[in-house]
Write a structure and sequence with these properties.
6-stranded antiparallel sheet; 5-stranded mixed sheet; 17 strands; alpha+beta; 3 domains; 28% strand; 31% helix; Rossmann fold; D-amino Acid Aminotransferase, Chain A, domain 1; Dna Ligase, domain 1
Length: 323
Amino acid sequence: MKKNIAILMGGYSNEYKISLKSGKVVFETLKNSNYNCFQIHVLKDKWVYVNESKKEFKIDKNSFTIIEKSEIKFDCAFNAIHGSPGEDGLLHEYFSKLNIPMSGCSEFQARLTFDKIKCLEYLKPHGIKCAKSSIISKGEKIDSNSIIKNVGLPCFVKASKSGSSYGITKVSKIEDFDKAVTIAFNEDNQVIVESFLDGIEVSVGIISYNNDILVLPITEIVTDNEFFDYNAKYKGEADEITPARISNQMTLRIKSIAKKIYEILDMKGFSRSEFIIQNDEIFLLEVNSVPGLTNESILPKQANAAGIELKDLFSNAINEAIN
């Protein structure tokens, strides 16, 4: 009998539109496979199943079931939600209580990786290099001069809990610093200010695949924008070159560090880590536990470069969760 798979998409953050695209790709890829697939929109104001005629059916949150012609229960949830509640541990806790397996990492890993500040602090004792930084909490007095003296200019002001480059500003003049902090605080109550690393930006996808940890081909990010921002990621204002134009030795070094991070964090499912190579040194920017799965997204392209079709990529994630 075919298993019922809830493909979760949407979310509560500014990333919900991107998540809806990711979820749609997963649904279209798997809908004629060995699963009964259901598009589940998890939004601030409603949780609903949306069928292909765009008719909505309310989710019973007490049991995570729906009633169409009869009651439908789910064997697994495929998590394609970027931001809260799919990437910050909330859904992980919810489905754990209902004993419904969900794709990807556990609650602890989700909460940790979603918080840039905590994740980087967790990894530093393990020898993972990061940019010089300062932390600001909402409500505290901000000494802009002291922070700039520490990290230098230009610098990046980032919301600690945010994705898709929301709440991130590159600051080149101290006069623009306060505005950048305000933008970041619109996304989260904690902000990390990092020194600018002038180098090659690369993205490394890692998946647990066929009971093994597989490091995918590395992607080099090239953009004329100030950084790899929303427009660069989703509106084609960047070149994503796979494999990256770096030496074999550097490729092996970065893959080794990315795999080490995956293992330290005890990750499962999909993961994507961002790095800057500066003067032959490798610096971690962040780790994503629910990377984009749209047609423009990096991880699916990396999987394709590794010879893995999307159907196999997504099916493996479901089977891993169930088993």
